[in-house]
Task: inverse folding
C-alpha cells in the first residue's frame, strides 16, 4: 500500500462503465452481491467482476503452491523461535480472514491521513465509499489486537491497482507479523528492581522514538524487531541484509529491510514500532510492540527462481508439480516450462505380481530412458485390484511436451508405443 505505490489514472467514464457492468451482470438494482452480501454501488465503486473473481482463490493455502510452501516455512520459523513458557508456539496464525474490509480497517485505524495517496481510487479496489478489498494485511491489526492477541501472523491476499508487468499483479499475498510487550516482558530480567526501566514517559518525539515511549523501550523493541526479521531472512536465504529508514503512518520509527539480489539491493519488507495511538484505538494502553509486512510473491520469486509473477496463478501442472515436495525446506529451483502445448497420454497395465513388488520409480526411470526430454511429467492417476482376475492395475498420465516445438499426436503416439513396449518387456506388465 505504501511501499512503492504508483499513482494510476482513473477517470469518471470508467466508473460509469463499471456501474453499468454491475447493473447488468450482478443485479437489477445498484448493488453488488458477493458471497451473499450486497454492497451499494456509489461513485467510489471501481472493483471489477474479474477482480472479484479472485476472492477465495487463496493461493497461499493451495497444496504444493510456492506461496503455500513459503507460508509454511515462515510459520515454522516463528513457531520454532518463539515459544511460551509451556513450550508451545507464541504466535497464532490467521490465514483466511475475509478480504473485504472497511475504510476504517484499511486506513483510519492505522492513522492514515485523510489525504494520503494510498486512499485514492487509483490505488485501491473500492466496493463503495465504505468498503474496499484490503490493500494490506495491516487492515486486520486492530481487530486482532482488540481481541486480546499479543503475537500473531496474518497471511492474506491483498488487492492493489497497479501496473502490469512481470513483478506486479493486482492481487498478491502478504504476511503481517505483530508482537506486543508488557513492561515486564520487555525488561524481563528484573522488572521490579530499583532503577528498572520504564516503557512510557511524557517526552518528545525524535527520529528514534515516539513521545510516549522511553528511549530505552523504543530501542529494545527496535532491536527485537530487527533481530527477528534478520534471522527470518537468514533462515530463508542465508544472506546478508541492510536496514534503511522508512515511513509508515502507523509505525515510528519505521524501516525497510533490503537484501542483495543480482548485485542490487532489493527491498523485502516494511516494519516498525507500532504507533501507540493504533494500540489505544484497539483498547490497549499498557503495551509497546512492533509490526512488519512482507510481500510473499517477491520473496518466492527470489527463493524459487520464478521469473514472472503471473506464474503464481498458473494451473499448469508443469508449474505446480515442481513444488510438490515432501519436505517444505526443499531448495526448489523452478525450471521454465515449455511454451508449446502439452500432450497428455495415459498408460494402463496389469502388474505381474503383488502391488508391493512394484515401484513407481522404476516406471518413471523407464519412461525417462525411453522417451527422454519430451516427457515433462509422469503422474500416477489410478490404481485398483481386480478381484476376479486377481490382478493389480496401474494408470499413469504421461505429459509429453517438447521445449522447442509443438509435438504432433503422431509423434507422441510413436514414443508412447515405445514406452508401452519397454514396460511390457522390462517390467513384465500387461498393457490393458
Ligand atoms: N502494510 C505495509 C505495506 O503494505 C507494510 C507494513 C506492515 C509496514 C507493518 C509497517 C508495519 O506497505
Result:
Amino acid at each position: 500500500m505504501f511501499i512503492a505505490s504508483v499513482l494510476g489514472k482513473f477517470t469518471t467514464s470508467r466508473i460509469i462503465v463499471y456501474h453499468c457492468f454491475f447493473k447488468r451482470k450482478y443485479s437489477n438494482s445498484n448493488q453488488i452481491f458477493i458471497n451473499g452480501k450486497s454492497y451499494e454501488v456509489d461513485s467510489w465503486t471501481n472493483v471489477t467482476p474479474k477482480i472479484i473473481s479472485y476472492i477465495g482463490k487463496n493461493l497461499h493455502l493451495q497444496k504444493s503452491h510456492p506461496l503455500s510452501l513459503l507460508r509454511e516455512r515462515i510459520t515454522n520459523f516463528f513457531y520454532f523461535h518463539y515459544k511460551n513458557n509451556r513450550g508451545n508456539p507464541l504466535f497464532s496464525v490467521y490465514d483466511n480472514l475475509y478480504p473485504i474490509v472497511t475504510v476504517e480497517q484499511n486506513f483510519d485505524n492505522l492513522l492514515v491521513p485523510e489525504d494520503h495517496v494510498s486512499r485514492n481510487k487509483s490505488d485501491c479496489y473500492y466496493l463503495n465509499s465504505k468498503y474496499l478489498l484490503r490493500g494490506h494485511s495491516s487492515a486486520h491489526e486492530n481487530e486482532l489486537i482488540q481481541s486480546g492477541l499479543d503475537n500473531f501472523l496474518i497471511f492474506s491476499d491483498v488487492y492493489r491497482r497497479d501496473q502490469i508487468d512481470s513483478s506486479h499483479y493486482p492481487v498478491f499475498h502478504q504476511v503481517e507479523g505483530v508482537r506486543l510487550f508488557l513492561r515486564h516482558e520487555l525488561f524481563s530480567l528484573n522488572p521490579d528492581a530499583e532503577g528498572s526501566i520504564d516503557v512510557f514517559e511524557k517526552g518528545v518525539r525524535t527520529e528514534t522514538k515516539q513521545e510516549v515511549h522511553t528511549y530505552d523501550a523504543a530501542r529494545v523493541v527496535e532491536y527485537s524487531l530487527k533481530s527477528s526479521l534478520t534471522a527470518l531472512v537468514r533462515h530463508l536465504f542465508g544472506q546478508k541484509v541492510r536496514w534503511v529508514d522508512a515511513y509508515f503512518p502507523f509505525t515510528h520509527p519505521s524501516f525497510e529491510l533490503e537484501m542483495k539480489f543480482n548485485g542490487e539491493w532489493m527491498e523485502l519488507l516494511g516494519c516498525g514500532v507500532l504507533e501507540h495511538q493504533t494500540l489505544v484505538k484497539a483498547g490497549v494502553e499498557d503495551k509497546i510492540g512492533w509490526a512488519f509486512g512482507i510481500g510473499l510473491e517477491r520473496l518466492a520469486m527470489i527463493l524459487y527462481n520464478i521469473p514472472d509473477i503471473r506464474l503464481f496463478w498458473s494451473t499448469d501442472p508443469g508449474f505446480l508439480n515442481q513444488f510438490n515436495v515432501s519436505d517444505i525446506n526443499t531448495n526448489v529451483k523452478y525450471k521454465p516450462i515449455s511454451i508449446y502445448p502439452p500432450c497428455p497420454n495415459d498408460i494402463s497395465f496389469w502388474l505381474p505380481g503383488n502391488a508391493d513388488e512394484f515401484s513407481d520409480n522404476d516406471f518413471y526411470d523407464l519412461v525417462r530412458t525411453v522417451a527422454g526430454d519430451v516427457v515433462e511429467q509422469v503422474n500416477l492417476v489410478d490404481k485398483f485390484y481386480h478381484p476376479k482376475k486377481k490382478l493389480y492395475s496401474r494408470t499413469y498420465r504421461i505429459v509429453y511436451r517438447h521445449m522447442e516445438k509443438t509435438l504432433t499426436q503422431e509423434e507422441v503416439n510413436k514414443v508412447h508405443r515405445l514406452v508401452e513396449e519397454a514396460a511390457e518387456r522390462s517390467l513384465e506388465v500387461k498393457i490393458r
